[in-house]
Amino acid sequence: MQSMKKRLTWIFALLPLTVMAQQNVPAPRTGSPGHPNIIVIFMDDMGYGDVDAYAGTGYTTPNIDRLAAEGMRFTNFYAGEAVCSASRAAILTGCYPNRIGIHGALFPNSKIGLNNKEETVAEVLKKAGYTTGAIGKWHVGDAYKFLPLQNGFDEFFGLPYSNDMWPMSYKGRPLDTADPRSKRPLLPLIEGNRTIRYIRTLQDQNMLTTWYTERAVSFIHQHKSQPFFLYLAHSMVHTPLGVSDKFRGKSKQGIFGDVMMEVDWSVGQVMKALKDNGLEQNTLVVFTSDNGPWLNFGDYAGTTGGLREGKGTSWEGGQREPCIMRWPGVIPPGTVCNKLAGTIDLLPTFARITGAPLPQQKIDGVNILALLKGDPSANPRDHLYYYYNENDLEAVRQGQWKLVFPHRYRSYEGVLPRNDGLPGPYSKGSTGLALYDLRRDPGERYDVKKQHPEVVKRLQALAEKAREDLGDNLTHRQGANRRPPGRI
């Protein structure tokens, strides 16, 4: 018994030193043996409550949960905007999407896309000697000049836009010729810059997660001897949902749960490839989502975990996302970060980690490496702006406080969703000026602006700075520092 007590005393004495070592690991420099690989797994329409580590039920996500157990789970992590193309422009450039002229969801044959003058995270990391690959959904322009290989990626395999942008219904049937969607082109699966096949049926959609995963594993095997950046942007859980036979019918939540289980399998395959190649300890893995769930699809959609509204809104359910990061030796295992952060912060953080220079043009992200190291005093992101539509400043958050500005929005409240894979109706919502204490009221139900006028004044001042910088259509402001999208 005495020897056991001595051993426990020795172990506990070492714990503070271990934590200090984790928090003071220097950022690896270009060319150093510790230069980490970086993998970003970016989901589509996955809600804050869709994995076990947050609130998922009726299915299991053990591989994603393992990331959380061995890494850090963020509770206040935000997409750049609550819609597809804008959100992807944000994660790729570290900018609010309205700064660089991208908004909404770009459709096939779009005349605009990501401007080649913007530096993507891939272009930044290539300066540090990284090989770069994009697999899955792109969706920041489908013209040749907008595709990944022209924007810093060495390899690309995936779709140029969302998997529902095809001439078929959500049931996989040809659309009536009177429906304008019937004029859309077939859904191309692209390798490099070349279409290698078309996604014609729901049976083809069932294979997307498997195909992406196989390519991701192959990318890891091929580039194990050099630092790499892999951007794995899944098409799921965006509708129409597709799941392979190996997971169909395996969950208690119908096809949505089946898809979640397959996505989790995909994460497991990526982690296995890292382990098989001796890379598991020298790779930063980030798992997050582009926006909240598309709630009017009912049981074909995910959950916000109790947050208000969903995809396409600036309420928390639309823009606050699950985020898990794992990096052994740097990120303390089993930790939770409650500080404010977002996808726009990934690019500058990766630049700091790798020693790569930041883009020459202004970006909006901040370096959050101190959060990853578990520094309890760190607070690199002071505030966050919520934009929607072309350039509407709909809210601002600082600390626990969120000030919402008067605007109208599409809503999921007061109407019933469908439960057959087809979209239900939207309702219309509107709000005046409102202040929410997200620490006590994450569902944004209790306006407390009368109780805290000093907070309202402080957040209004932050909003005014944003309007001077980026403008605001809601208040008819132009802004001084917006940049144009790419055009053809």
TrEMBL record:
Start and end residues of each Sulfatase N-terminal domain: 36-355
Signal peptide (residue range): 1-21
Region (Disordered): 467-488
Transmembrane feature ranges: none
Keywords recorded for this protein, A-Z: Calcium, Hydrolase, Metal-binding, Signal
Domain of life: Bacteria
UniProt cross-references to InterPro entries, sorted A to Z: Alkaline_phosphatase_core_sf, Sulfatase, Sulfatase_CS, Sulfatase_N
Gene3D superfamilies with a match to the protein in the record: 3.30.1120.10, Alkaline Phosphatase, subunit A
Family: Belongs to the sulfatase family.
PANTHER family linked to this entry: ARYLSULFATASE FAMILY MEMBER, ENDO-4-O-SULFATASE
Protein name as catalogued: Sulfatase
Organism (species): Compostibacter hankyongensis
